[in-house]
């Protein structure tokens, strides 16, 4: 999650190449290691060696195996492109990877999901990609999370009517009226927000065929159904959601705070930093009759495993422990990458970076990036970093009605994006017991993109001062966990206790300042996907960004054939 100050799709001057292959390639999971040990997710861990195994070239080289990079690579393989993913870490998944310690299987990032089981044009973008790859993810369904607010604590249920009861009790009659006004205004817009499947979008003029012409009838129907007022509101789908709030003249502070919190849960930003289309899609998923939330059985690593399986199924390759040192640019075009080992990997068609904007810039020769863009990048605001608390403990002494998700807000006046103010807690073993040893729970608490990186800059990770700062800054998470898990919980009895700082985030995820957020402009054959690009932050958004890049690298006819094949 991160700030999203730039809501525009950057131009990467995409070519319009076509590629047809009559051969089916053998899938490869390359491992730069002497020995391979299966991880908790079924992926393979690795240690970097000097040379890159396998063929040192591909049609498309993808840097990074986050959700966006894997979605892009998987679809490219589905399009019969020779694609190679290079991952610096010894596990795939980027910020969504999972890891195993003492039999406790931890998520490292997102844990709040919905829409995995949806199909067709209105499906979640990640679900559409998985459908294209012929993969499914078994999920446990639920409909609530615990919230701990200054006004009180309660079990918040999704659905069209349940939240009204919470508003009556913890807010005011005015909040009830304004919430109804908001739902009445935006739920009709969901037809327009969902009428254009993300998988139909591409970054060239071919979008006129794959999206505009193909879905014009459904778009027109949705506009007619909305009427003049609704159609006018639909023009704001690509604007910040706060503009819709303002246009409705909503004044109740609880409603403003709650909407900011929902935006923060979805994308790590407040309502003034998230696209209206993304929020409206979420409202349609969470506040319609019969809706539910979903958690992948076997943890968020199951998503990564499914994407890797899909990639390999269609002949794609992924190499773990392969650290990209730089993007090679020849005659003004990205032609490949150089690994830390010195090995050159040629990209015959394109290089796709799933790294952040700032990290991708650091991979490029300075002389090929316009100075004006470099200057603008330096002044682009970044969100702050993360603190993590991973715990493994006995389930015997904690509350028996423990739910999977808990959200603690200490002070509305400081804002949901203030440091040490909002703590998100996930106990996924409640729904997927295999994530912990029998009779145990696994827990992940974190400060979501609000921990100031400058507090940590320059610290030696082995120093006592660093350990003291970790203890001090993690205390707010410990207190939130004690509140959520109940009086029987004991810090001392935890079998696993891991505190991750912004330096941990930076080190393991290779993220500039340990953050996420806002794209490289003007270098032919270089594309970017992930949270630095349109449509922004969050799992659905980064999945869509990967799909957009993959679609842009194949012909319109190939793109259209895929849309036909998966029925959208």
TrEMBL record:
Name of this protein: Prolycopene isomerase, chloroplastic
Record domain Amine oxidase: where: 67-551
Species in which this protein is naturally found: Prunus mume
Keywords of this entry: Isomerase
Signal peptide coordinates: none
Phylogenetic lineage: Eukaryota, Viridiplantae, Streptophyta, Embryophyta, Tracheophyta
InterPro entries registered for this protein in UniProt: Amino_oxidase, CrtISO-like, FAD/NAD-bd_sf
Listed GO MF terms: isomerase activity
Matches recorded under Pfam families: Amino_oxidase
């Amino acid at each position: 999650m991160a700030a999203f100050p730039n809501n525009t799709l950057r131009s990467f001057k995409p070519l319009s190449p076509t590629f047809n292959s009559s051969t089916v390639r053998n899938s490869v999971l390359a491992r730069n290691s002497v020995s391979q040990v299966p991880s908790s997710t079924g992926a393979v861990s690795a240690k970097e060696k000097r040379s890159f195994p396998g063929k040192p070239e591909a049609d498309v080289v993808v840097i990074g195996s986050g959700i966006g990079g894997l979605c892009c690579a998987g679809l490219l393989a589905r399009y019969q492109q020779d694609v190679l993913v290079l991952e610096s870490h010894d596990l795939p998944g980027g910020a969504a990877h999972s890891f195993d310690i003492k039999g406790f299987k931890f998520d490292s990032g997102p844990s709040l999901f919905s829409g995995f089981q949806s199909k067709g044009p209105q499906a979640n973008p990640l679900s559409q990609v998985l459908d294209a790859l012929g993969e499914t993810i078994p999920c446990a369904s639920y409909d609530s999370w615990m919230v701990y607010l200054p006004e009180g604590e309660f079990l918040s249920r999704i659905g069209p009517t349940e939240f009204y009861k919470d508003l009556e009790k913890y807010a005011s009659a005015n909040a009830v009226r304004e919430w109804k006004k908001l739902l009445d205004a935006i739920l009709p817009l969901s037809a327009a927000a969902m009428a254009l499947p993300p998988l139909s979008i591409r970054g060239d003029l071919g979008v006129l065929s794959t999206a505009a012409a193909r879905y014009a009838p459904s778009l027109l129907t949705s506009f007619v159904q909305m009427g003049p007022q609704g159609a006018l509101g639909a023009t704001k789908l690509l604007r910040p959601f706060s503009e819709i709030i303002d246009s409705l003249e909503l004044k109740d502070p609880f409603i403003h705070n709650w909407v900011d919190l929902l935006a923060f849960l979805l994308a790590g930003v407040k309502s003034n930093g998230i696209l209206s289309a993304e929020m409206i899609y979420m409202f349609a998923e969470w506040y319609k009759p019969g809706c539910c939330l979903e958690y992948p059985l076997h943890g968020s690593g199951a998503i990564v495993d499914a994407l890797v399986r899909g990639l390999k199924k269609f002949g794609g390759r992924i190499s773990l422990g392969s650290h990209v040192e730089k993007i090679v640019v020849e005659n003004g075009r990205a032609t490949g990458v150089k690994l830390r080992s010195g090995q050159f990997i040629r990209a015959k068609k394109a290089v796709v970076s799933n790294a952040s904007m700032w990290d991708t810039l650091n991979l490029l020769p300075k002389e090929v990036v316009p100075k004006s863009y470099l200057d603008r990048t330096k002044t682009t605001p970044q969100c702050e970093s993360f603190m993590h608390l991973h715990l493994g403990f006995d389930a015997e002494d904690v509350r028996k009605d423990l739910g999977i998700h808990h959200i603690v807000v200490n002070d509305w006046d400081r804002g949901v994006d203030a440091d040490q103010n909002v703590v998100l807690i996930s106990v996924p073993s409640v729904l997927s017991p295999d994530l912990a040893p029998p009779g145990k729970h696994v827990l992940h608490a974190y400060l979501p993109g609000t921990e100031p990186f400058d507090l940590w800059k320059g610290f030696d990770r082995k120093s006592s001062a660093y350990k003291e700062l970790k203890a001090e800054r993690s205390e707010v998470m410990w207190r939130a966990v004690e509140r959520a898990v109940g009086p029987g919980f004991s810090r001392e009895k935890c079998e696993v206790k891991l505190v991750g700082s912004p330096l941990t985030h930076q080190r393991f995820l290779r993220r500039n300042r340990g953050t996420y957020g806002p794209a490289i402009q003007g270098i032919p054959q270089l594309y970017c996907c992930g949270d630095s690009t349109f449509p922004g932050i969050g799992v659905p958004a980064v999945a869509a960004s990967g799909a957009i890049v993959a679609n842009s690298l194949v012909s319109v006819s190939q793109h259209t054939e895929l849309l036909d094949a998966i029925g959208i």
